Amino acid sequence: MTWARSGEFDAVVVGSGPNGLAAAVTLARAGLAVTVLESQPDIGGGARTVDLGLAPGITHDLCSAAHALAAGSPFFQAFEPEARGVELVAPEASYAQPLDHEPAAIAWRDVERTADGLGADGCAWRSTLGALAANWRTVAQLSLGDKRSIPPGVLDPRALPAAALFGAMVGAQGTPAWGLPLGTERARALLAGVGAHAIGPMPSLAIGATSMLLGTLAHATGWPIPVGGSQSLIDALVRDLEQHGGTVVTGHHVHTWRDVPPARAVLLDTTAGAAADILANRLPRRLERALRGFRHGNAAAKVDYVLSGPVPWRDTEVGHAGTVHLGGTRAQMARAEAQVEAGRRAEQPVTLVSDPSVADPSRRSGGLRPLWAYAHVPAGDPTDPTETITAQIERFAPGFRDLVVASRAIPAAEMAQHNPSLVGGDFAQGRVTMYDMIARPTSRLDPYRLGDCGWYLCSGATPPGPGVHGMSGWHAARRVLRTRFGATAMPSLSPRS
């Protein structure tokens, strides 16, 4: 592409995932001339909804389906997607954990109903997850901050008890004491299963933090599903960007800095390694080495199904949940994750399943419905996961195979073909350890700034890490406004401003 003139844009964003668009919207609302460059023919990165051609009228979410982090994200709270026509529907049950030889554990949106179903652990669940859910904004601010500063709301004396409880629970769940304060296998499996949204050894502090954040939001905001698919969130961001003068260019590949038009600031919604490639020999050597050395984690391999009916869960209560964690007991999940960490495929891998039509019946067509599932596998694994995932679902839902009308698999090794940021199937854009979540992608005071050249990294490879929350883009954009454009006040994101 030929750009019209030098200085055509104030800011360029490379990549149209949720973080890239969050950055672009923030900059455009500050009055800057902004364009977004996307290599794919469609917009949205990991939050796209597409017709895979598997069945008429059936669409699938490519990477993300349920959106706990979008519901709890300070960026999306400020952006107010529901005031922009995005309908977010939280299922009656946020998530479920089927077990082989006893009833499933269910995390209902209602914390009291959840506690009642956990028997002897009901009181402990209520006093921990219930207490955190009552103060969920504190939990969200702690978890989704820039890891370089204390969120202002956390300093409020009224927030300190919740912050202390959150820290204590992360410590308990992330160490060999991870049984505390729960005593039953069902409750322990329920909490460990939600931590498995981050791929890694169990127990670990990063897994513990994930379980506490997502577990808190399950009872506070719920795990909502956007009506029509994840694309509706992306479309709302693009509409706002365009209303404030921004543009999006698709099919534009950025291999080096020369592929980007002149601008005072450039923000990369890419992996750390891709940022180093784009700015090769233009970065301080130490920073370039750090970006190239940022470690990728293990991976997800995905299967999109079309079913002729609802999943026949052995425990019918599971059918109320929008998301289901398959792996059995906590010990079984820990063993499977250890095998993946050692570079081996687990025979019964931790598998996540989402049926968006549980909350959004409009996703069904002609008696058919989509189902979204992925399993944890070693990084770069080339194996077709269809049989492994199907067997894992069948383990807890006998007769599932009979409902499969069509399917499409994406091995971990092929994930980057539809999203370059998913290197080897690593959807977290880097290992999920506590150190790597803080020093992400480096331990520098400003993890977003790429030297002194006016370029920044705004992807999930920066704090707070992976997820559809827009916070990495928001943090980076606000730094750009302060350091490159001298802004002293940040723009409102409200649709009423």
UniProtKB/TrEMBL annotation:
Residues 342-364 are annotated as: Disordered. InterPro entries: FAD/NAD-bd_sf (IPR036188). The lineage of its organism: Bacteria, Bacillati, Actinomycetota, Actinomycetes, Micrococcales. It comes from the Bacteria. This is NAD(P)/FAD-dependent oxidoreductase. Pfam families: NAD_binding_8. SUPFAM superfamilies: FAD/NAD(P)-binding domain.
